[in-house]
Amino acid sequence: MTSTAHGKVILLGEHAVVFGADALAASLSPGVECIARPSPGGTVLAVAPWGVSFRPDDGSELGRAVGDLCAAMGVRDAALALTLHLPGGGGLGSSAAMGVACARALAEMHGRTLRDDELLAFALGWEKVFHGNPSGVDHTLAALGGIGLFNRATGLRRVPMRGALRLCIGDSGERASTREMVHRVARLRERLPAATDQTIESIGAVARDGALALQEGDAKSLGNFMNLNQNLLAALLVSNERLEDLCAAARAAGALGAKLTGAGGGGCVIALAPGREDDVLAAWRAAGVDGRVVEVGR
Ligand code: MEV
Questions:
Q1: Would you say the CB of residue 22 lies under 6 angstroms from ligand 1?
Q2: Is 63 close to ligand 1, i.e. is its CB under 6 Å away?
Q3: Is pLDDT of 161 > 90?
Q4: What is the domain range of residue 264?
Q5: Cα(265) to centroid(ligand 1), Å
Q6: Following DSSP, what letter does each residue of 143-165 receive, concatenated?
Q7: Do 76 and 176 belong together in one domain?
Q8: Where residue 163 falls among pLDDT bands split at 50, 70, 90?
Q9: Which of 124, 186, 200, 233 has the largest CB neighbor count within 10 A?
C-alpha cells in the first residue's frame, strides 16, 4: 500500500515559530507518496522525480535521515520508493513530508500503524538531520494535515474555516538552505536582541490575528497581515530582491496580500487574491515564474 504525507504552506509566522511564537499554517496536497519493501541488498531510498537514490552511508543528508529513521524504528534493510509532488527545497515542506511518508511506509511494511505521537517523534528525528532546531510546524502539518495555529510548546490548534482557502503559489526558482536561514535569524538575535525579539513577538501576534481573520472569512485583513508579515520577515533578513519583486508583482495584479513562505532566501511566494488569481499568475509569468492556484488546509 502507498503511504502519503502532506506538504505545507506557512500563511503567517515562519522563523518566529522557531523562537516560540505562533504560526498559521496549512497542509498542501498532494505532497509525497512512499512505498517500502524488504530489501536484502540494504536500505535504499529512491526519489522518483529526481531519479536519484540515497543510502545511509553515502554521506548525504537524505541518506543519513533514512538510516537514522530505520534505526529508530528498528527496521533493517528496506527499499523505499518516494514520489514527490512538491518542489524540493522550495519552502513547501518537502523534507518533512518525505520523513512522514517514509515512517508511515516502514510501519506499513511491518503491518503496523503508528500513533500520531510516535509518527511525530520519528519525523522530528528526520527533520533534525536537515536543520538542527526545527520548530516542528513542517512535520506536524505533513502528518496531521488541515489548517491551524502551531506553537512548538503546544502543537497544532485547528482553525475552523468556512470553505477552502485558495492561494497562488509561485516558485522563485532560487534556493537557500533552511539551516542557514534559521542561523541567520539566530545571529541577528544575538547582535540585536531587543529589536529581533520585538519582531518575533509581532509576527506571533500577526499569526494569531490572521487566524481570527481566516476564521471570520475576512480576506482583506488576512491579506494585510500577509503584507505586514512580509515586511517583518524582511526585517529578519530572510527576504531578498527576487521575493520582494514577486510579492510586489502579485499585489500590483490585485492580490490582497503576498509573502514568502518557508525559510526564505529563495523558494516560493504565496498570494491571496480572491477572484484575481489569473492576473497574479499572469504577472508572475511575465516575471519568468510558473505559478499555480491551490486549495490548502484540506
Ligand atoms: C521552514 O519551513 C519554517 C521555519 O520556520 C523553520 C522551522 O519552523 O523549523 C523557517
A1: no
A2: no
A3: no
A4: 165-296
A5: 12
A6: HH-SEEEEETTTEEEE---SSPE
A7: no
A8: confident
A9: 233
